[in-house]
Amino acid sequence: xxxxxxxxxxxxxxxxxLTVSQVADVDTFDERKIVLLTSEDVxxxxxxxxxxxxxxxxxxxxxxxxxxxxxxYSGKNYGGKQKGFFKKLLK
Length: 91
Hints:
By secondary structure, the protein is mainly beta. It is built from one helix and six strands, in the order ββββββα. The chain has a six-stranded antiparallel sheet with strand order 1-2-6-5-4-3, with no helix packed on it.
């Protein structure tokens, strides 16, 4: 693991309250999908009636309330922001 990367943690309580640490940025959010960026990964959270209850940019702490259906790690290639191996090869 590189030294500038900090491990993050997720705590999900009763599928209705999620806390995430070490959040670097919130890429997109609405009531059905929230996309978070950490130093290591992109995390997609899907659900209904989701709201960001707390966002502390200095500590990277985030709290989400709502009905949470899935939490998905999509890596650093979310939305084509970084080119993968095959995209570079076919260029």
